[in-house]
Amino acid sequence: MTGTWRPAPGRVVCVGETMAALAPDPPRPLSEAGHLRLSVAGAESNVAMYLADHGIPVTWLSALGDDPLGARVRSAVAAAGVDVAPVRTDPDRPTGLMLKNPTPTGTRVHYYRRGSAASALGPDLLDHEALRTAALVHFTGITPALSASCRELVTGALAVPAAERPYAISFDVNHRAPLWPRGAAPGALRDLAGRADIVLVGLDEAQDLWGAELTPAAVRELLPGPRVLVVKDGSREATAFTGSGAVTVPALRTVVVEPVGAGDAFAAGFLTGLLRGEPVDRALRLGHITAVSALKVTGDHGPLPPHRSVGRLLALTDEEWEAYEETPRSAPDTAGGGQRGGPPT
After folding, report:
1. Which of 92, 264, 300, 318 is catalytic?
2. What are residue 285's phi and psi, to 5 degrees?
């Protein structure tokens, strides 16, 4: 395999569950909260919304309950410029719900998604009209953990050899341990990731799944199949492995308000770079730039910098990029400014 493979330009279809999300406002433990803020949360729709922000035509393919939370999710994703027309409304199953519980030691997440509308997605979705014109289909490792039918959906898509698929497939490992039966995730996620064209994985989650001593190069040895493999080393850097070799780009320094959603933002930025035919280092930079948009807000989806600012960052020399530190107009006193703000997993 030589050279840098790229997906064909065109529409992206993101497949997976999005839930309504409740979080204390202001942030504090749920047991002490007087008010909750309602938003939406879903890895695949996060990617879709950031792709739309970058001007990439994108469709979200999923299912929602016939309930007020489903209507809220649908309208929020559509408002970001994502095509939600194919999203099915299920009259018999509810929209999934998650609660965020901020504590002094970090934010815990509680899911109420068993039996949700999206958990009933299955391999029949692969015949959906939305996929017929897709250049790229995006999955995450969350979907196969939701139910047996969801597992069959992702497995079925990746069972077709890459050369025979009508679209490329990107796969963000996105390991969510509470969703998997004990001991099932390492083998299942390695098998699925190994069949995708583009794979994104955090070094920490790779170490949790496949070996504590893994380096980015060792992750590549475990996953030789993907045409493009990105290993994200937390707030430090991200390395892309392609047929042309490995490219590493440091994360940007920024004030971190909340890390949730930054990994999805990075994925969208990187995929945007590939779809536009950018060199791999610029695609990684675009991933980092997009991740910062999520790191600076309390929700999963924050505004991109102005187009001119993005162009200026992409044009920096390697030395200027590594030295660059974003200076926000105002930053929370508790944020600990100046740290690198790479995509969490």
Report:
1. 264
2. -60, -45
